[in-house]
Amino acid sequence: MSYATPMTVSHTFTSHDFGAGAGAVSIKGPKGKRGFIEDIFAYSTETFNAVTTPAYIRIGTGSDADAYAEANLGTTAATDTFVASANDVDAIINPDLPEDVQVEVAFIAPTGGTPAGIANVTIVVSWY
User: Fold this and answer.
1) Residue 32: CB atoms within 10 Å
2) CB neighbours (10 Å) of residue 99?
3) Which residue among 8, 33, 64, 111 has its CA within the 20 to 30 Å range from the CA of 52?
């Protein structure tokens, strides 16, 4: 598979309750393949609040939580879809993922008031 024909994968994590607290998952591409973050989506099933700070999706490493991306979910309404390329155009800091490295994904809870927000999160990566 060459650069001209990457394998695009939608890494999906279902029903994370951001209001209940932070969470962590990881993604890793096929052996020997580099990745390129195409976009980040959050399909909201419960309205997000951001009384003090908003919820975030961070993509990074063990030592730099947002080395690749930090998406601010703001006050995304229930049934709305957050799309990083449209709703937070600076979210993807460095789209290039190294080969054969586990990438850490952190779901950061909003703070203040009564934290709320549930979403299915999809991170689209082209592996080449």
Assistant:
1) 9
2) 14
3) 64
Q: Where are the beta strands (DSSP E) in the chain?
A: 7-17, 23-27, 35-46, 56-60, 69-72, 81-83, 96-97, 103-108, 118-127
Question: How crowded is the C-beta side of 92, counted as CA atoms within 13 Å?
Answer: 19
> How far, in Å, CA of 79 to CA of 74, rounded?
14
Domain architecture of the chain: domains with CATH: 9-127 (2.60.120)
Residue 5 confidence (pLDDT) = 85
Listed as ranges, residues in the chain with pLDDT below 50 are 1
Please state the pTM of the whole predicted model: 0.95
Pairing of strands 35-46, 81-83: antiparallel
- Residue 64 neighbours by CB distance under 10 Å: 11
pLDDT at residue 3, rounded to an integer? 56
**Segment 39-65, tens digit of pLDDT:** 999 999 999 999 999 999 999 999 999
Beta carbons of 19 and 115 less than 8 angstroms apart: yes
Q: Give the pLDDT of residue 34.
A: 97
